Amino acid sequence: MAIYKYQEFINRHRVGEFPSLICLLGSDLYLRGQLVDMAAERFGPGKKVERENFYATESSPENVLASSQTCSMFAERKIILVHQFQAWPQNQRAVILGYLEKPSPDTILILIADDPPADYYEKLSYGKWFKSASSKIEVVDIAGLRAEEVREIIKEMAKSFEKRITPEAVDLLLETIGPRPELVCQELAKISLYLASAKLISPELVSELTIGSKLQNIFELAEALGKKDIDRSLNIYHRMYEQNPVSDAFWFLGILAIVRRQFRIMLELQAALGAEQTVGKIAGRYNIPYALRGEYEQLAERFDKKRLLEVFDDLHQTELEIKSSAHEKNIIIESLIMRLCQP
Predict the structure, then answer these.
(1) Measured distance CA(11)–CA(17) in Å, rounded
(2) What count of Cα atoms within 13 Å lies in the side-chain half-sphere of residue 28?
(3) Which among 96, 111, 151, 164 could bridge 23 via Cys, Cβ 3.0 to 4.6 Å?
(4) In whole angstroms, what is the distance from residue 212 CA to residue 48 CA?
(5) Long-range contacts at 122-131 (CB < 8 A, ≥ 24 apart)
(6) Helical residues (DSSP H) of 134-229, grouped into ranges
(7) pTM, rounded to two decimals
């Protein structure tokens, strides 16, 4: 047994027997759904499968085990999902692992734990039990995906919508949303509806439908930062923050990624000012709307090259702080803005 990455687990169980008990470590609903669907398929085509949900905060392991040994009245097979599994103390987790002693051939038990904490040391403590349990059961880590892994998942998502997606569009989705399959899937569903019978998802479509007004907000923020206008910079950021329904670490990292992209554009434009053809190529490569190209050039002229390079260092340090610090993420971003506005 081991702790597997998402694709490793998929490849391992694409054919052959499926484990009677697995643990999913991570909150991404898209990946959870894919794995639960895979478990249902392993029962065989045409088999009716009931899905029964328990929550560790409301149920005991004894109740779950009793259900695992009870035949379904509605289907031939059963998948039992135990959500918020991390809420059970270690002694109760040990009880549920007792299912391995007498697993039902008609039931698959899936334990689902939330994402690990952001703080490095808390994350180590959180993952200690799952690492130990991986000697007995298969644990699937769906919380720590790398960008390369998500690229492949995005391509498969596009196929499921009967669409093709260009590598540039994949990169732009990752840059603006981050390695979050659940949110990427929502965006692809929106783009797919917009395309109707058309098949190709281009970076222009991603820019128009996914970034949308966010691009204008980020441009305004970059402009305010360029003028070192602290009040306006903070007001624009607060507006973006209030418009966002989910203010988790990934959202803040996404904001940093888009800000970094804006300053990268300005750095390249600054080096090309006066060369209209080169400026046009840069604008095309970054899918800058034609109406904004002149404004981007004017903004690039205002920035000092040395200051632009310093901005990248500050953005990198802020990214590390968001990933590793227990501090309030909103305060971290506000502090970054105030530093960037210093004379």
Answers:
(1) 12
(2) 24
(3) 111
(4) 43
(5) 122/326, 126/86, 127/25, 129/90, 129/93, 130/3, 130/23, 130/25, 131/3
(6) 147-160, 167-177, 181-195, 203-206, 213-226
(7) 0.66
Estimate to the nearest angstrom the gap between the alpha carbon of 49 and the chain centroid: 29
The one-letter amino acid code at 221 reads L
In one letter, which amino acid is 169? A
Give tens-digit pLDDT for 167-189: 988 988 887 777 889 888 988 99
Amino acid at 77: R
Q: Rounded CA gap, 341 and 294, in Å?
A: 23
Domains (ranges, CATH) in the chain?
A: 3-141 (3.40.50.300), 147-211 (1.10.8.60), 213-340 (1.20.272.10)
What angle do the packed helices 249-272 and 167-177 form, to 10 degrees?
A: 120
**C-alpha distances in Å from residue 202, one per residue of 51, 174, 185, 192:** 37, 14, 16, 11
Is residue 142 within 8 Å of 31, Cβ to Cβ?
yes
Residue with tokens 């904004």: 292
Do 84 and 55 meet the contact criterion of CB atoms below 8 Å apart? yes
pLDDT digits (tens, 9 = 90+) for 303-326: 777 777 888 888 888 888 887 766
